[in-house]
Amino acid sequence: MRRVLAVGAHPDDIELGCGATLLAHSAAGDAVTMLVMTGGENGPGDDTAVVGRRAEQERAARTLGAGLLWGGLRDCTLTPDAATVAVVERALAETAADVVYVHAPDDSHQDHRATAAAALSAARRLSRVLHYQSPSTLTFSPTTFVDVTAYLSGKLAALGAHASQVEMSAMVEPDAVVASARHWGAQARIGYAEAFAPTRMVLDLAPAPRHAVQAVPEAHRLIPTFR
Ligand SMILES: [Zn+2]
């Protein structure tokens, strides 16, 4: 069983970047935890919407079969300082994570950049650290892909839990999510994919458990269903 920690600066960042991959981890029996660094105080909607955004995030985490941790930091003020690194370190210690997903470092949003940098410091001893794409990511050259053909509708359901963002932000468009997944899928020669740029990714070549071997043909049968 893998122990996965997905880190995002704001509510809905993780779902957009790697929500379907987290669903695949959950389906594989892995322990999945989300760490959301801020409450999204400066996102679309007024300040009183923060309570609502927290409830949305909790609903989305349940949809993904994931636990949820809050970093307790203030939206738009993140810096990759010792306090921010410590927030990620505490989450890593609490979850004993061996796989980390986090923002790509090159991003126009300062909170995303700071979260990526803090996570890289906190996860300096881990062998699997992968960066996901956000709508504000700049340079992004993914080389690692996850087949999410079976989990794309679940990702959309998790994003749907963030109603305040889906309705008020052009950054969260279901059409764009599906198109992006198909684009990365074509790059990876599969159906729909989420894409990752790893800082480190150690392949596990241990023999697959018998049930996993048997599951492969079924998974492949799902691929021709994409349109
Ligand atoms: Zn964000």
Feature tags:
227 residues; alpha/beta; Rossmann fold; seven-stranded mixed β-sheet; 8 helices; disordered C terminus; binds zinc ion
Topology:
Elements: E1 3-8, H1 13-27, E2 31-38, H2 49-64, E3 67-73, H3 82-95, E4 99-103, H4 110-122, E5 128-132, E6 144-147, H5 152-160, H6 163-168, H7 174-188, E7 193-201, H8 210-222
Parallel strand pairs: 1-2, 1-4, 2-3, 4-5
Antiparallel strand pairs: 5-7, 6-7
The chain binds zinc ion.
Structural write-up:
With 227 residues, this protein is α/β, with parallel strands linked by helices. The protein has a single domain, classed as LmbE-like (Rossmann fold). Helix content is 44%, strand content 19%. It contains eight helices and seven strands. The longest helix has 16 residues. The chain is globular, with a radius of gyration of 17 Å. Zinc ion (ZN) binds next to loops.
What share of residues are in beta strands?
15-25%
What is the total number of structural domains?
Answer: 1
Shape type:
globular
Mean pLDDT: 88
Tally of DSSP helical segments: 8
